[in-house]
Design goal:
The protein has helices spanning about 1-5, 10-30, 145-150, 155-170, 175-185, 190-225, 225-245, 245-355, 365-380, 400-410, 415-425, 430-445, 450-460, and strands spanning about 45-50, 65, 70-80, 85-90, 105-110, 115-120, 135, 140. It is an alpha/beta fold. It folds into five domains: about 1-35; about 40-145; about 200-245; about 260-355, no CATH class; about 400-470, no CATH class. It has an eight-stranded mixed β-sheet, with no helix packed on it. Helix 10 (about 400-410) runs antiparallel to helix 11, helix 10 packs across helix 13 (about 450-460) and helix 12 (about 430-445) packs antiparallel against helix 13 (about 450-460). The longest helix is centred in the middle third of the chain and has 111 residues, at about 245-355. The N and C termini lie far apart (about 150 Å).
Protein backbone atom coordinates (compact mmCIF):
# COMPACT_ATOMS: atom_id res chain seq x y z
CA UNK A 1 0.00 0.00 0.00
CA UNK A 2 2.87 2.35 0.80
CA UNK A 3 4.34 1.67 -2.62
CA UNK A 4 1.01 2.41 -4.26
CA UNK A 5 0.75 5.71 -2.37
CA UNK A 6 4.28 6.67 -3.48
CA UNK A 7 3.45 5.82 -7.09
CA UNK A 8 0.22 7.86 -6.98
CA UNK A 9 1.22 10.54 -4.45
CA UNK A 10 -0.32 13.42 -6.36
CA UNK A 11 -3.65 11.60 -6.71
CA UNK A 12 -3.57 10.68 -3.01
CA UNK A 13 -2.91 14.30 -1.96
CA UNK A 14 -5.74 15.52 -4.21
CA UNK A 15 -8.14 13.01 -2.66
CA UNK A 16 -7.13 14.07 0.90
CA UNK A 17 -7.58 17.77 0.04
CA UNK A 18 -11.00 17.06 -1.48
CA UNK A 19 -11.96 15.08 1.62
CA UNK A 20 -10.91 17.94 3.94
CA UNK A 21 -12.80 20.45 1.79
CA UNK A 22 -15.89 18.24 1.81
CA UNK A 23 -15.77 17.97 5.61
CA UNK A 24 -15.31 21.76 6.02
CA UNK A 25 -18.13 22.58 3.59
CA UNK A 26 -20.42 20.03 5.22
CA UNK A 27 -19.71 21.51 8.65
CA UNK A 28 -20.37 25.04 7.34
CA UNK A 29 -23.68 24.00 5.78
CA UNK A 30 -24.78 22.05 8.84
CA UNK A 31 -23.85 24.95 11.13
CA UNK A 32 -25.93 27.40 9.07
CA UNK A 33 -28.79 24.91 8.99
CA UNK A 34 -28.99 25.01 12.77
CA UNK A 35 -27.17 21.79 13.60
CA UNK A 36 -25.36 22.02 16.90
CA UNK A 37 -22.11 20.20 17.51
CA UNK A 38 -22.23 18.73 21.04
CA UNK A 39 -18.50 18.88 21.75
CA UNK A 40 -18.03 22.38 20.34
CA UNK A 41 -21.16 24.38 21.16
CA UNK A 42 -22.96 24.64 24.51
CA UNK A 43 -26.46 23.20 24.69
CA UNK A 44 -29.27 25.80 24.51
CA UNK A 45 -31.89 26.26 27.22
CA UNK A 46 -35.62 26.24 26.50
CA UNK A 47 -38.32 28.79 27.26
CA UNK A 48 -41.94 28.67 26.07
CA UNK A 49 -44.55 31.08 24.75
CA UNK A 50 -48.31 30.59 24.52
CA UNK A 51 -50.04 31.74 21.27
CA UNK A 52 -53.67 31.85 20.22
CA UNK A 53 -52.66 30.13 17.00
CA UNK A 54 -49.47 28.54 15.75
CA UNK A 55 -50.31 29.00 12.06
CA UNK A 56 -47.29 28.56 9.72
CA UNK A 57 -44.99 27.74 12.64
CA UNK A 58 -42.80 24.85 11.42
CA UNK A 59 -39.93 23.71 13.66
CA UNK A 60 -36.71 22.66 11.95
CA UNK A 61 -37.15 25.10 9.02
CA UNK A 62 -34.79 27.74 10.36
CA UNK A 63 -37.52 29.81 12.00
CA UNK A 64 -35.74 31.97 14.57
CA UNK A 65 -36.29 33.86 17.80
CA UNK A 66 -35.09 37.48 17.58
CA UNK A 67 -34.62 40.49 19.85
CA UNK A 68 -34.36 43.85 18.04
CA UNK A 69 -33.54 42.00 14.84
CA UNK A 70 -30.74 39.91 16.40
CA UNK A 71 -31.19 36.15 16.43
CA UNK A 72 -30.86 34.69 19.93
CA UNK A 73 -32.28 31.20 19.26
CA UNK A 74 -34.56 28.98 17.15
CA UNK A 75 -38.14 27.70 17.31
CA UNK A 76 -37.68 24.15 18.61
CA UNK A 77 -41.15 22.56 18.76
CA UNK A 78 -44.86 23.40 18.89
CA UNK A 79 -47.56 21.58 20.87
CA UNK A 80 -51.29 21.97 21.51
CA UNK A 81 -52.42 22.61 25.07
CA UNK A 82 -56.01 23.41 26.10
CA UNK A 83 -56.86 24.70 22.64
CA UNK A 84 -53.89 27.07 22.19
CA UNK A 85 -50.37 26.61 20.80
CA UNK A 86 -47.29 26.35 23.01
CA UNK A 87 -44.05 27.11 21.13
CA UNK A 88 -40.71 26.04 22.53
CA UNK A 89 -37.85 28.50 22.10
CA UNK A 90 -34.30 27.12 22.10
CA UNK A 91 -32.25 30.09 23.35
CA UNK A 92 -28.46 30.17 23.07
CA UNK A 93 -26.76 29.87 26.45
CA UNK A 94 -24.91 33.19 26.10
CA UNK A 95 -28.30 34.98 26.26
CA UNK A 96 -29.46 33.27 29.47
CA UNK A 97 -29.46 36.58 31.39
CA UNK A 98 -31.33 38.53 28.70
CA UNK A 99 -34.97 37.43 29.11
CA UNK A 100 -36.92 38.67 32.14
CA UNK A 101 -40.28 37.54 33.50
CA UNK A 102 -42.04 40.61 32.02
CA UNK A 103 -41.04 39.69 28.46
CA UNK A 104 -43.57 39.80 25.57
CA UNK A 105 -43.63 37.95 22.22
CA UNK A 106 -44.98 38.67 18.70
CA UNK A 107 -45.33 36.08 15.93
CA UNK A 108 -44.47 37.77 12.62
CA UNK A 109 -43.67 36.71 9.03
CA UNK A 110 -40.36 37.68 7.44
CA UNK A 111 -41.72 37.36 3.90
CA UNK A 112 -45.07 37.01 2.19
CA UNK A 113 -44.59 33.24 2.17
CA UNK A 114 -45.32 33.03 5.91
CA UNK A 115 -41.68 32.48 6.86
CA UNK A 116 -42.41 33.06 10.54
CA UNK A 117 -40.20 34.22 13.42
CA UNK A 118 -40.76 35.20 17.04
CA UNK A 119 -39.92 38.80 17.96
CA UNK A 120 -39.22 39.07 21.70
CA UNK A 121 -39.22 42.09 23.94
CA UNK A 122 -36.96 40.71 26.71
CA UNK A 123 -38.28 43.10 29.38
CA UNK A 124 -36.05 44.31 32.16
CA UNK A 125 -35.74 45.28 35.81
CA UNK A 126 -37.36 45.31 38.30
CA UNK A 127 -38.65 41.97 36.94
CA UNK A 128 -36.21 39.11 37.68
CA UNK A 129 -34.37 37.10 35.02
CA UNK A 130 -36.44 34.21 33.65
CA UNK A 131 -35.18 30.74 34.53
CA UNK A 132 -35.04 27.90 31.95
CA UNK A 133 -38.52 26.51 31.33
CA UNK A 134 -40.22 29.92 31.83
CA UNK A 135 -43.46 30.40 29.85
CA UNK A 136 -44.65 33.68 28.39
CA UNK A 137 -48.41 33.70 28.93
CA UNK A 138 -50.91 34.22 26.13
CA UNK A 139 -51.87 37.62 27.55
CA UNK A 140 -48.31 38.78 26.79
CA UNK A 141 -48.17 37.44 23.20
CA UNK A 142 -49.81 38.25 19.88
CA UNK A 143 -50.16 35.83 16.91
CA UNK A 144 -49.82 36.72 13.25
CA UNK A 145 -53.00 38.15 11.72
CA UNK A 146 -53.61 37.54 7.98
CA UNK A 147 -55.26 40.22 5.82
CA UNK A 148 -58.18 37.90 5.01
CA UNK A 149 -59.06 37.83 8.74
CA UNK A 150 -59.36 41.60 8.71
CA UNK A 151 -61.35 41.63 5.45
CA UNK A 152 -63.64 38.87 6.69
CA UNK A 153 -64.85 41.17 9.48
CA UNK A 154 -66.09 43.69 6.86
CA UNK A 155 -69.29 43.51 4.84
CA UNK A 156 -69.29 43.33 1.02
CA UNK A 157 -69.82 47.09 0.46
CA UNK A 158 -67.00 48.00 2.82
CA UNK A 159 -64.70 45.48 1.10
CA UNK A 160 -65.58 46.98 -2.29
CA UNK A 161 -64.92 50.51 -1.05
CA UNK A 162 -61.68 49.37 0.55
CA UNK A 163 -60.66 47.70 -2.72
CA UNK A 164 -61.31 50.93 -4.65
CA UNK A 165 -59.44 52.91 -2.02
CA UNK A 166 -56.38 50.66 -2.19
CA UNK A 167 -56.39 50.64 -6.02
CA UNK A 168 -56.78 54.42 -6.14
CA UNK A 169 -53.99 54.84 -3.60
CA UNK A 170 -51.79 52.53 -5.67
CA UNK A 171 -52.39 54.58 -8.84
CA UNK A 172 -51.92 57.88 -7.03
CA UNK A 173 -48.70 56.83 -5.31
CA UNK A 174 -47.16 55.10 -8.33
CA UNK A 175 -43.54 56.26 -8.73
CA UNK A 176 -44.09 58.80 -5.90
CA UNK A 177 -42.56 56.95 -3.00
CA UNK A 178 -40.06 59.77 -2.33
CA UNK A 179 -42.88 62.34 -2.23
CA UNK A 180 -44.84 60.16 0.19
CA UNK A 181 -41.76 59.81 2.37
CA UNK A 182 -41.36 63.61 2.39
CA UNK A 183 -45.04 64.00 3.34
CA UNK A 184 -44.59 61.59 6.24
CA UNK A 185 -41.42 63.47 7.25
CA UNK A 186 -43.33 66.78 7.30
CA UNK A 187 -46.05 65.15 9.41
CA UNK A 188 -43.49 64.04 12.00
CA UNK A 189 -43.90 67.16 14.26
CA UNK A 190 -47.69 66.76 13.96
CA UNK A 191 -47.42 63.13 15.01
CA UNK A 192 -45.29 64.11 18.00
CA UNK A 193 -47.85 66.73 19.01
CA UNK A 194 -50.66 64.21 18.50
CA UNK A 195 -48.76 61.75 20.67
CA UNK A 196 -48.59 64.39 23.41
CA UNK A 197 -52.31 65.14 22.98
CA UNK A 198 -53.16 61.44 23.12
CA UNK A 199 -51.04 61.07 26.25
CA UNK A 200 -52.85 64.00 27.83
CA UNK A 201 -56.23 62.60 26.75
CA UNK A 202 -55.29 59.21 28.17
CA UNK A 203 -54.26 60.89 31.42
CA UNK A 204 -57.56 62.81 31.42
CA UNK A 205 -59.37 59.52 30.86
CA UNK A 206 -57.61 58.02 33.86
CA UNK A 207 -58.37 61.15 35.90
CA UNK A 208 -62.01 61.03 34.74
CA UNK A 209 -62.29 57.40 35.77
CA UNK A 210 -60.83 58.27 39.15
CA UNK A 211 -63.27 61.21 39.41
CA UNK A 212 -66.27 58.98 38.60
CA UNK A 213 -65.09 56.46 41.17
CA UNK A 214 -64.66 59.22 43.75
CA UNK A 215 -68.15 60.59 42.95
CA UNK A 216 -69.60 57.13 43.36
CA UNK A 217 -67.96 56.80 46.76
CA UNK A 218 -69.17 60.30 47.68
CA UNK A 219 -72.77 59.54 46.66
CA UNK A 220 -72.67 56.30 48.63
CA UNK A 221 -71.37 58.16 51.69
CA UNK A 222 -74.04 60.87 51.25
CA UNK A 223 -76.77 58.25 51.04
CA UNK A 224 -75.54 56.75 54.29
CA UNK A 225 -75.48 60.18 55.98
CA UNK A 226 -78.98 61.36 54.92
CA UNK A 227 -80.02 62.54 58.40
CA UNK A 228 -76.81 64.54 58.85
CA UNK A 229 -77.29 66.10 55.41
CA UNK A 230 -80.84 67.22 56.30
CA UNK A 231 -79.46 68.75 59.49
CA UNK A 232 -76.69 70.43 57.46
CA UNK A 233 -79.25 71.90 55.06
CA UNK A 234 -81.38 73.19 57.93
CA UNK A 235 -78.32 74.72 59.60
CA UNK A 236 -77.25 76.24 56.27
CA UNK A 237 -80.73 77.78 55.83
CA UNK A 238 -80.45 79.30 59.29
CA UNK A 239 -76.99 80.62 58.50
CA UNK A 240 -78.12 82.10 55.18
CA UNK A 241 -81.13 83.72 56.95
CA UNK A 242 -78.76 85.31 59.46
CA UNK A 243 -76.53 86.45 56.59
CA UNK A 244 -79.59 88.05 54.95
CA UNK A 245 -80.36 89.93 58.16
CA UNK A 246 -76.76 91.14 58.27
CA UNK A 247 -76.75 92.22 54.61
CA UNK A 248 -75.49 95.74 55.36
CA UNK A 249 -72.67 94.55 57.59
CA UNK A 250 -71.69 91.81 55.11
CA UNK A 251 -71.65 94.38 52.27
CA UNK A 252 -69.41 96.65 54.33
CA UNK A 253 -67.15 93.72 55.18
CA UNK A 254 -66.95 92.77 51.49
CA UNK A 255 -66.18 96.41 50.58
CA UNK A 256 -63.38 96.45 53.14
CA UNK A 257 -62.13 93.04 52.06
CA UNK A 258 -60.02 94.15 49.01
CA UNK A 259 -58.00 96.63 51.06
CA UNK A 260 -57.63 94.10 53.82
CA UNK A 261 -56.50 91.46 51.36
CA UNK A 262 -54.03 93.88 49.76
CA UNK A 263 -52.59 94.80 53.15
CA UNK A 264 -52.47 91.13 54.07
CA UNK A 265 -50.67 90.36 50.81
CA UNK A 266 -48.07 93.06 51.43
CA UNK A 267 -47.62 91.90 55.00
CA UNK A 268 -47.21 88.29 53.90
CA UNK A 269 -44.63 89.36 51.29
CA UNK A 270 -42.67 91.15 53.99
CA UNK A 271 -43.10 88.18 56.29
CA UNK A 272 -41.83 85.94 53.51
CA UNK A 273 -38.74 88.12 53.06
CA UNK A 274 -38.28 88.13 56.84
CA UNK A 275 -38.68 84.34 56.92
CA UNK A 276 -36.11 83.99 54.13
CA UNK A 277 -33.63 85.91 56.29
CA UNK A 278 -34.78 84.34 59.55
CA UNK A 279 -34.22 80.78 58.39
CA UNK A 280 -30.45 81.10 57.68
CA UNK A 281 -30.04 83.37 60.73
CA UNK A 282 -31.72 80.82 62.99
CA UNK A 283 -29.60 78.06 61.49
CA UNK A 284 -26.46 80.10 62.18
CA UNK A 285 -27.62 80.77 65.76
CA UNK A 286 -28.02 77.08 66.56
CA UNK A 287 -24.29 76.58 67.42
CA UNK A 288 -24.40 79.70 69.62
CA UNK A 289 -27.55 78.46 71.37
CA UNK A 290 -25.91 75.11 71.95
CA UNK A 291 -22.92 76.88 73.48
CA UNK A 292 -25.07 79.02 75.85
CA UNK A 293 -25.13 76.50 78.77
CA UNK A 294 -21.35 76.28 78.77
CA UNK A 295 -21.08 80.08 78.45
CA UNK A 296 -23.49 80.57 81.36
CA UNK A 297 -21.48 78.20 83.49
CA UNK A 298 -18.25 80.00 82.60
CA UNK A 299 -19.90 83.39 83.24
CA UNK A 300 -21.09 82.21 86.66
CA UNK A 301 -17.59 81.02 87.49
CA UNK A 302 -16.24 84.44 86.38
CA UNK A 303 -18.92 86.53 88.14
CA UNK A 304 -18.37 85.01 91.61
CA UNK A 305 -14.69 86.07 92.02
CA UNK A 306 -15.07 89.32 90.01
CA UNK A 307 -18.02 90.70 92.07
CA UNK A 308 -15.82 91.91 94.98
CA UNK A 309 -13.40 93.50 92.51
CA UNK A 310 -16.19 95.42 90.75
CA UNK A 311 -17.84 96.40 94.04
CA UNK A 312 -14.76 97.34 96.07
CA UNK A 313 -12.27 98.53 93.41
CA UNK A 314 -13.79 99.40 90.03
CA UNK A 315 -16.91 101.14 91.39
CA UNK A 316 -14.98 103.47 93.76
CA UNK A 317 -12.55 104.23 90.91
CA UNK A 318 -15.44 105.18 88.60
CA UNK A 319 -16.95 107.45 91.29
CA UNK A 320 -13.59 109.13 91.85
CA UNK A 321 -12.92 109.52 88.10
CA UNK A 322 -16.20 111.27 87.30
CA UNK A 323 -14.95 114.85 88.08
CA UNK A 324 -11.85 114.33 85.92
CA UNK A 325 -13.94 112.95 83.10
CA UNK A 326 -16.27 115.98 83.31
CA UNK A 327 -13.24 118.27 82.94
CA UNK A 328 -11.86 116.21 80.05
CA UNK A 329 -15.14 116.40 78.17
CA UNK A 330 -14.59 119.92 76.65
CA UNK A 331 -11.06 118.95 75.61
CA UNK A 332 -12.38 115.74 74.03
CA UNK A 333 -15.03 117.76 72.16
CA UNK A 334 -12.39 120.18 70.82
CA UNK A 335 -10.13 117.25 69.91
CA UNK A 336 -13.03 115.65 68.02
CA UNK A 337 -13.56 118.92 66.10
CA UNK A 338 -9.85 119.13 65.27
CA UNK A 339 -9.57 115.48 64.30
CA UNK A 340 -10.56 116.01 60.59
CA UNK A 341 -7.88 118.71 60.20
CA UNK A 342 -5.35 116.55 61.99
CA UNK A 343 -6.19 113.68 59.67
CA UNK A 344 -5.52 115.93 56.66
CA UNK A 345 -2.24 117.14 58.19
CA UNK A 346 -1.02 113.65 58.98
CA UNK A 347 -2.14 112.43 55.56
CA UNK A 348 -0.06 115.18 53.87
CA UNK A 349 2.81 114.49 56.24
CA UNK A 350 2.58 110.81 55.44
CA UNK A 351 2.67 111.54 51.71
CA UNK A 352 5.68 113.81 52.27
CA UNK A 353 7.51 111.12 54.26
CA UNK A 354 6.64 108.50 51.63
CA UNK A 355 8.02 110.83 48.94
CA UNK A 356 11.25 111.30 50.94
CA UNK A 357 11.54 107.56 51.54
CA UNK A 358 10.84 106.56 47.92
CA UNK A 359 13.86 104.85 46.37
CA UNK A 360 13.61 104.70 42.54
CA UNK A 361 15.30 102.10 40.40
CA UNK A 362 19.01 102.38 39.63
CA UNK A 363 20.79 104.59 38.50
CA UNK A 364 18.45 107.22 39.99
CA UNK A 365 18.49 108.02 43.72
CA UNK A 366 15.79 109.05 46.14
CA UNK A 367 15.57 112.11 48.32
CA UNK A 368 17.07 110.37 51.37
CA UNK A 369 20.22 109.53 49.36
CA UNK A 370 20.61 113.13 48.25
CA UNK A 371 19.91 114.29 51.81
CA UNK A 372 22.73 112.08 53.10
CA UNK A 373 24.95 113.34 50.26
CA UNK A 374 24.17 116.97 51.16
CA UNK A 375 24.86 116.24 54.84
CA UNK A 376 28.23 114.73 53.90
CA UNK A 377 29.16 117.71 51.75
CA UNK A 378 28.04 120.15 54.46
CA UNK A 379 30.10 118.30 57.07
CA UNK A 380 33.12 118.28 54.74
CA UNK A 381 32.62 122.00 53.96
CA UNK A 382 32.22 123.29 57.50
CA UNK A 383 34.56 120.84 59.30
CA UNK A 384 37.64 122.68 60.56
CA UNK A 385 39.15 120.13 62.93
CA UNK A 386 41.79 118.68 60.54
CA UNK A 387 45.56 119.00 59.87
CA UNK A 388 45.10 121.99 57.55
CA UNK A 389 43.81 124.23 60.31
CA UNK A 390 40.90 126.62 60.06
CA UNK A 391 40.44 126.40 56.32
CA UNK A 392 37.30 125.55 54.33
CA UNK A 393 37.49 122.67 51.92
CA UNK A 394 37.27 123.82 48.31
CA UNK A 395 36.20 121.91 45.20
CA UNK A 396 37.36 123.26 41.86
CA UNK A 397 36.32 122.01 38.44
CA UNK A 398 38.11 122.87 35.19
CA UNK A 399 38.87 121.47 31.73
CA UNK A 400 42.18 120.08 30.48
CA UNK A 401 42.78 123.10 28.21
CA UNK A 402 42.18 125.49 31.11
CA UNK A 403 44.56 123.49 33.33
CA UNK A 404 47.20 123.61 30.58
CA UNK A 405 46.81 127.39 30.28
CA UNK A 406 47.13 127.79 34.06
CA UNK A 407 50.32 125.70 34.12
CA UNK A 408 51.77 127.63 31.13
CA UNK A 409 51.00 131.08 32.51
CA UNK A 410 51.94 130.58 36.16
CA UNK A 411 55.47 129.24 35.81
CA UNK A 412 55.32 128.09 39.42
CA UNK A 413 56.74 124.65 40.12
CA UNK A 414 54.08 123.97 42.79
CA UNK A 415 51.28 124.53 40.27
CA UNK A 416 53.03 122.37 37.66
CA UNK A 417 53.60 119.60 40.25
CA UNK A 418 49.87 119.56 41.13
CA UNK A 419 48.60 119.72 37.53
CA UNK A 420 51.11 117.24 36.01
CA UNK A 421 49.35 114.03 37.30
CA UNK A 422 46.12 115.27 35.74
CA UNK A 423 47.53 116.43 32.38
CA UNK A 424 49.62 113.24 31.93
CA UNK A 425 46.64 110.89 32.66
CA UNK A 426 45.43 109.42 29.35
CA UNK A 427 41.96 108.78 30.83
CA UNK A 428 41.50 112.35 32.09
CA UNK A 429 43.31 114.42 29.39
CA UNK A 430 44.08 112.16 26.42
CA UNK A 431 45.33 114.96 24.09
CA UNK A 432 47.79 116.46 26.59
CA UNK A 433 48.97 113.00 27.71
CA UNK A 434 49.67 111.96 24.08
CA UNK A 435 51.66 115.17 23.37
CA UNK A 436 53.65 114.70 26.57
CA UNK A 437 54.54 111.10 25.66
CA UNK A 438 55.58 112.22 22.16
CA UNK A 439 57.95 114.96 23.49
CA UNK A 440 59.42 112.56 26.00
CA UNK A 441 60.20 110.10 23.21
CA UNK A 442 61.84 112.87 21.13
CA UNK A 443 63.84 113.91 24.20
CA UNK A 444 65.15 110.36 24.67
CA UNK A 445 66.14 110.19 21.00
CA UNK A 446 68.01 113.51 21.34
CA UNK A 447 65.84 115.30 18.86
CA UNK A 448 64.57 117.72 21.49
CA UNK A 449 66.73 119.71 23.91
CA UNK A 450 65.86 119.85 27.60
CA UNK A 451 64.96 123.49 27.31
CA UNK A 452 62.66 122.82 24.31
CA UNK A 453 61.14 119.90 26.16
CA UNK A 454 60.61 122.09 29.21
CA UNK A 455 59.00 124.82 27.11
CA UNK A 456 56.82 122.34 25.29
CA UNK A 457 55.69 120.70 28.45
CA UNK A 458 55.02 124.04 30.05
CA UNK A 459 52.99 124.99 27.01
CA UNK A 460 51.05 121.76 27.30
CA UNK A 461 50.70 122.19 31.04
CA UNK A 462 52.14 118.71 31.66
CA UNK A 463 55.17 117.39 33.43
CA UNK A 464 57.11 114.34 32.23
CA UNK A 465 58.69 112.04 34.82
CA UNK A 466 62.19 113.35 33.97
CA UNK A 467 61.19 117.02 34.30
CA UNK A 468 62.39 117.49 37.90
CA UNK A 469 65.91 116.49 36.71
CA UNK A 470 65.95 119.19 33.98
CA UNK A 471 66.99 122.76 34.41
CA UNK A 472 64.14 125.05 35.34
CA UNK A 473 65.44 128.15 33.54
Amino acid sequence: MTRAIKNHLSDFVAIVVLLVLAVAISGYILDHQGLRFPLIEAAPFSDYVELQTGQAVTPGQGQSVRVSGVQIGDIGAITLKNGYAVVRMDIESKFKHLIHTNATALLRPRTGLDDMFLELDPGGPPAPVAKPGFTIMMSDSLPDIDPDEILASLDSDTRAYLDQLVNGAGLGLKNRGDELAQVFERFEPTHRDLARVNSAVAQRGADLAQLVDSLARLNTALAQKQVQIVQLIDASATVFHDFANEDTNVSQAIADLPGTLQQTTETLQKVQAFAAQLGPAAANLIPAARALPAANSALSALAVPSTPIIKNQIRPFVVAARPVIRELRPAAINLAKATPDLQVVFRVLGNFVNMLGYNPASPDHGYLWWLAWADHNARSLFENQDANGDFRNLFLQTSCDTAAQIADSSGLMEVIDNLTPILTDADLCPAQAAANAKDYKLYEEGKLSPRQASNTIATLGAKVPFLPKLPTN
